[in-house]
UniProtKB/TrEMBL annotation:
Residues 12-471 form the Aldehyde dehydrogenase domain. InterPro entries: Ald_DH/histidinol_DH (IPR016161), Ald_DH_C (IPR016163), Ald_DH_CS_CYS (IPR016160), Ald_DH_CS_GLU (IPR029510), Ald_DH_N (IPR016162), Aldehyde_DH_dom (IPR015590). PANTHER family: ALDEHYDE DEHYDROGENASE-RELATED. It comes from Herbaspirillum lusitanum. It holds the Pfam family Aldedh. Belongs to the aldehyde dehydrogenase family. Keywords: Oxidoreductase. The active site is at residue 245. This is Aldehyde dehydrogenase family protein. It comes from the Bacteria.
Amino acid sequence: MKQFKNLIAGEWVTGASEVENINPSDTNDIVGTASHASAAQVAEAIAAARQALPKWNAGTVQLRSDILSTISNELFARKEELGELLAREEGKTRAEAIGEVGRAANIFRFFASEVVRIRGEKLASVRPGIDVEITRDPVGVIGIITPWNFPIAIPAWKIAPALAFGNSVVFKPSELTPGSAWALADIIARAGVPAGVFNLVHGSGPVVGDALLNGVDAVTFTGSVKTGNQIVRRATERLIRVQAEMGGKNPLLVLDDADLETAVSCAVDGSFFQTGQRCTASSRLIVTAGIHDRFVDAVAARLDKIVIDHALKAGTQVGPVVDKRQLEQNLRYIDIGINEGAQVRVKGELLKRETPGHYLSPTLFTGSSNQMRINREEVFGPVAAVIRVKDYEEALSVANDTSFGLSAGICTTSQKYARHFQTHAEAGLTMLNLATAGLDYHVPFGGRKGSSYGPREQGTYAIDFYTILKTSYLSV
């Protein structure tokens, strides 16, 4: 059985306890054991990162670029192997998992180029004989905390810019996906990153996450609203830089003039694929009266044909829920929706397959209101609710009536409504005739309101979090 160890100061070390990593497609299959670090080991990792930081930052941008390119190349070369590992421990299909590894490879390749394009400015002072230069310094030791739903891509879009811009890293992955994190860390370590510059510590939030927040210079987090709020408070108390992506309750508007096939595809893909376990999932389907009934019928018919099975089985379209706790949460929200008075057009049911797993069919509610809990709180599963509205104006009002603001989509053939929505949707991402889930690797990612806190992730905008501007005056 594979043991997923911690990487501290360039050495692979066992932790204080071992926790089994269970395959959600086959709960009899143990992928490996994660070696959970102690708080003292986290402190050692932070100390190692701090000690390694000056030499790493003093190295050339070409060195950092070459190392990131090496990481990218190995991810590309091993994407099928790593994708299978990812699918086995997380539950997304093999095709989705391979695609995620490819995305991670592209992210490292992108930042391998960005590192040699770090820009500054030279300005004239208002005083004679003085020049002004504006440059960027690394922030320091970056604490990285990532979720289980994209266990290679999300770490990649945090680790790659952190290293590119001269920082050192202590990385805490989700307890549910230690294998993908270990595989990525192994590639990074062998790519030539000096000992201590990159560290991996497995474990729980109360132990490892808490210890991490005590010593780093900045923390970047993706995960739940509750945990994100706690991290933001802790970080601001210490006056350290913080970036938090915390989920969404994303609307997809379907207007009377929408192409029905397009709208149905957007809704089914965005709401139910990857088992609905995406922070950008379309969990609120806001549909105008003229198309409502046809849309609901078509979505229900499409859901009846979705193939739900083992993540690695050929032909599977949707895999299992990631673990028992998440499955129980999904079932609770289905009951909540029923008790609130929403109508069940398609009811999620526990499914039996050849292997024991956390299989759940999709749930589609109709007749729901925007004030119901199923439309206010993030379920993070294959559950979506239809809200019937009169017209575009009411649809936009309902879409914006939420504490979240990550992604928002609209299906329409009207340029007037499309442009108005792009301007007035209170979200960090807007989609026209596309699923709310899905983003390129080279563009900024983030939301508004309770979905996000701090600078954007990804693309050229990532530099704003991972560097500090310095203004220098020079007497000439």
